[in-house]
Design goal:
Elements: H1 6-10, H2 13-28, H3 42-55, H4 61-66, H5 71-75, H6 82-99, H7 105-119, H8 125-132
Helix pairs in contact: 2-3, 2-6, 6-7
Length: 133
């Protein structure tokens, strides 16, 4: 017997679509994050949807379409500091709650997003503020 994936536990594709929609609705209203995203959010929403489904045990559609995720490389051109990370993470955690993802999937997803978002920081605000003074 195989263990259920998070993808299965949360209800599959429709739940991940709702999660991405809830997350992006928050990003659209965020004065710090919104300028980091392109005018047309639809391609990013699609890629995030495909990636999250795959990462959490669903079909490997992201890999088939885009190859290896290479998250840091794909986000390197965006200045991601601690504030941007906290805002991004907050919106994602709020989206998880808005969609109604239940335990144990909720805790596992939250832990992943906390780790992954910290890994994406590529600007050290503390150092740049000191250099400017």
């Amino acid at each position: 017997m195989t263990e259920a994936t998070i993808f299965d536990m949360v209800g599959g594709e429709s739940t991940f679509r709702q999660l991405v929609d809830a997350f992006y609705a928050r990003v659209e209203q965020d004065e710090v994050l919104r300028p980091m995203f392109p005018a047309d959010l639809e391609p990013g929403k699609r890629y995030q949807f495909l990636f999250l489904m795959q990462y959490f045990g669903g079909p490997a559609l992201y890999a088939a379409e885009r190859g290896h995720p290479r998250l840091r490389m794909r986000h390197h051109s965006f200045p991601i500091d601690r504030e941007a990370r906290e805002r991004w993470l907050g919106h994602m955690l709020d989206a998880i709650d808005a969609v109604g993802i239940l335990e144990p999937a909720r805790a596992q997803m939250r832990a992943y997003f906390e780790r992954a978002s910290a890994f994406m920081i590529n600007v050290d605000i503390g150092r740049s503020q000191v250099e400017q003074s």
